[in-house]
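Researcher: Structure prediction, please.
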Amino acid sequence: AYIPNIGYFKYGEKKAFDSIFIIENTKIELLKQPIKLLENIFRTNTDELIREKEIIIDNDLFEKNINALTNAFKLIKVNSQDQYKLIEENCKKVIMFKTNPDNINSFATINAQGIAFFNVYQEEYDEVFFVDDIAHQTGHIILTTLFYDKKAIFKIDEEQNIGSLLKINDNRSIHILLHAFYTG
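Model: Predicted structure follows.
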């Protein structure tokens, strides 16, 4: 079981078998072990639950990717302080997992708001991958937080079809288009 701010415990044991891990020079926790409460979050693009055995979250992924992930956060912090501040304020945890990208790729979801999920399915990832994925997934988290009270943000119907508004062939809503602009 995972207990926030303390660590990971095995049934019947009083001592954590693994402590929490805060990414160096950040306030962001990297979830290193599978968490039962997050199992239902891993869904395909057609909203089917991905079987637990098809999702890998383990120490090997951690060891292989932690340096690149840490360096990516450092690059963002040094080169884009305002964006980094938004990331740290809105994204409290990240998790690296591995599954077939046909199942799902990296993601963020309102069902686990504040957690960015990075699919590290290839053998080698570098800072470039993580800078891009951090910016994209945390961008969704930031905008979901910002748009919580949509009526205070939008003066028009945020679900209005952009194509009908601009007389172009585009079926996205204004809300979706803003997400696309911000998350790239």
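Model: Residues 59-79 form the longest helix (21 residues).
Researcher: Thanks, that helps.
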